[in-house]
Amino acid sequence: MSEPGIPILISLSATATPEGEQPDAMQLLTSGQLILQGRGYLICYEEQLDETQESTKVRLTLEDGAVTMLRSGPYETNLVFCKGQRYESQYSTPFGEMDLAIFCTRATYAMDDLGGSLHLIYQLDLNGQFVSMHDLEMRFVVKEGDARHAPSA
């Protein structure tokens, strides 16, 4: 059983750019938990794409220069972001399953006593076809009063 997490505030900005089209931007402000795990970190939060849908639980593991994303709920997948590598998986949606692949060109993160940041750039393919380029930036801060519990980088 893991120890309780440190409460954090999360700001997430992402763009998806299909070939020849304008970028589609998404922003999310939410709260979550930061947990120190061995030599890495675990960030847990929930996101809701639509007010009428069930939320999706997201678990990000940041360790050894790689980022693993596990999404559970109505939209499920498991992804590994490691610069210069392709990762293939399944994407489960309420509409069915699809083959999903990413090719990561950037996977960086930084951490300090007050919070941290994460930056991912990757190509997304579904069912063997290019869909879009993605640029995801996350910033998180330890909720006020909890900084004394934050793990040091």
Strand order of the biggest β-sheet: 6-5-4-3-2-1-10-9-8-7
Order of helices and strands: EEEEEEEEEE
Our count of helices gives 0
Instruction: State the distance separating the first and last CA atoms.
Output: 23 Å
Helical percent range?
A: under 10%
| SSE-based structural type | mainly beta
Structure characterization notes:
This protein is an all-beta fold and 153 residues long. It is 0% helix and 69% strand. It is built from no helices and 10 strands. It has strands spanning 6-17, 24-37, 40-47, 56-63, 66-72, 77-81, 86-93, 96-112, 115-126, 129-142. The radius of gyration is 16 Å and the shape is globular.
Helices and strands, with pairings:
Blueprint: E1 6-17, E2 24-37, E3 40-47, E4 56-63, E5 66-72, E6 77-81, E7 86-93, E8 96-112, E9 115-126, E10 129-142
Antiparallel strand pairs: 1-2, 1-10, 2-3, 3-4, 4-5, 5-6, 7-8, 8-9, 9-10
